[in-house]
């Protein structure tokens, strides 16, 4: 059960968000520099492979449709590319951002960007404890601080500063695990839940995040895209354990996400006013994923409740995707790949909205525009 849950942690929807935005360095078109990716399993590209943790995706059939690996698992919690990968490809970048903990995240490889993401991680340090190991956002930013120094060595301090502040995008996809694998977890967080109201807990999250984003700003980050928390009450895991009908979602989980998302929007407005030269883009992952789930047929999906790869219950939502899981036939017909994470087909739709879409889902500018600022 622990192993099962761990997966879950992952992050599901959140991820969706944008994290990934941009991966690469595209000197031909306006000199895009690097993509620095922070967050949770929605955008993990393999850091957890290097941690002793229960939250891992480096087992088949994960990655079965991922061309870059020839269908082998890489640590991505989906059948193909993450939103970050897809955004990078669309921008024509040559390499995916390297995972910080991977041995090849050294030397010039970091000029295309670095991925600090960890499945199971959250805004709060305690989030994801049930996985034993994961990197929370504080630590992800400590790691970026190391990378920042490497940039000074590689490029010299004035060129490095320009590269980081004007030619790079920082994406942060985080928050879902703070609910799924912290506040809503009956065993580990019961203390916090007894002593803290949702308001108090969300206050803590926002105050931490303000501090975390300000630290990135102090390290010369200027172009940010921050994803809100997706409809975590609608993932196959939640629908299965709560024995819901197809068209129902878990109210309490979605309410917490919505409440946090409102505060996040205010925080980004505040930071846009307060930190000179910075642009904080808000990615409305919640509404985007909810639209995919509600109107799935319009987007060519046949299933929006059931995991393609998983086992247990009505929606295959209990046991994470692995070698013994049952797998659906049409992997591109399912919104969800596993009990927690979207399929590559869903990631594609999400990524394109974030790249090219209007202010309903990405504001004040989309990622293409952010890149060209
Ligand atoms: C870095 O290593 C990972 C894991 O082996 C691999 O998937 C990736 O393609 C490598 N990236 C670069 C830029 O060498
Ligand atoms: C969270 O962990 C980081 C890294 O270990 C540490 O620097 C930070 O002070 C911790 N934050 C809290 C609130 O405990
Ligand atoms: C980055 O690391 C240095 C120590 O090397 C430390 O003094 C500084 O406060 C750190 N900056 C941030 C924003 O964490």
From TrEMBL:
GO molecular function: hydrolase activity, acting on ester bonds
Pfam short name (any one): Lipase_GDSL
InterPro entries found in the cross-reference section: GDSL (IPR001087), GDSL_Est/Lipase (IPR051058), SGNH_hydro_sf (IPR036514), SGNH_plant_lipase-like (IPR035669)
Key words of the record: Hydrolase, Lipid degradation, Lipid metabolism, Signal
Coiled coil: none
Domain of life from the UniProt record: Eukaryota
CDD domains given in the database record: SGNH_plant_lipase_like
Gene3D superfamilies referenced in this protein's UniProt entry, alphabetically: SGNH hydrolase (3.40.50.1110)
GO process annotations (BP): lipid catabolic process
Signal peptide positions on this chain: 1-24
Family to which the UniProt record says this protein belongs: Belongs to the 'GDSL' lipolytic enzyme family.
The protein, known as: GDSL esterase/lipase At2g23540-like
Lineage of producing organism: Eukaryota, Viridiplantae, Streptophyta, Embryophyta, Tracheophyta
Gene that encodes it: LOC111300759
